[in-house]
Amino acid sequence: MATTKLHLKPWDGIVVALLLLAAAVFFALWQKDGASLGTPPAVEIYVDGQLMRTVPIPSHKEEVRIETAYGVNLLHIGPEGVAMAEADCASRDCVHTAPLTRADGAIACLPHRLLVRLSGNLSTKDAPEEVDVVAG
Ligand SMILES: [Zn+2]
C-alpha cells in the first residue's frame, strides 16, 4: 500500500485527466486555425477548468500573480517562456515544471486546480521545428 500525503481521490485524477484531454483537443483544433493568422501567443490561465485570465506575452519578463481560493501562484512570463516561479502548494510540482515555450505543453498545479497553457508556440532560438534534412 502506497501512502501519500496528497489527499487526491481517484475521482480528482479522472477529472484532471479529462480537463487535460479536453484542453489538448481544444488546442490541437485551435492551432490549425490560429497558426496561419500569426496571432501572437498568450498565456491562458485556467482555474477549475475555467479560463480565468488571458495574458499576452510581454516583450520583457513580467510577473503575474494568481490568487485563488486554493492558494497563490506566481508566474514569470516573457518572450523566452512561461515558468512557475513560486507557489504555496504542498507539492510544488508546478514550480519544478520546465518552462513553457510551446502550445503543446502545460504547467499544472493540481492542489490549486490550476492549469497554465500557451495559445501558440513562442519563437525561441532553439525551436526544433525548422530542422532541415541534411542530404548526404
Ligand atoms: Zn503547485
Characterization of the model:
The chain is 18% helix and 30% strand. The model has no long low-confidence stretch (mean pLDDT 85). It starts with 9 loop residues before the first helix and ends in an 18-residue tail after the last strand. It contains 1 helix and 7 strands. The protein has a single domain (10-123), classed as mini-chromosome maintenance (MCM) complex, domain 2 (Sandwich). The protein is α+β, with helices and mostly antiparallel strands and 136 residues long. The strands form 2 sheets. The chain has a 4-stranded antiparallel beta sheet with strand order 2-1-7-6, with no helix packed on it. Strand 3 (62-67) and strand 4 form a beta hairpin. The site of zinc ion (ZN) has 8 residues, from loops.
Low-confidence stretches: none
**What is the H-and-E element order?**
HEEEEEEE
CATH class, please? Mainly Beta
How many individual β-strands?
A: 7
- Give the overall form: globular
Which molecules are bound in this entry?
zinc ion
Q: Could you give the distance between the termini?
A: 55 Å
Structural domain count: 1
Annotation field: number of helices: 1
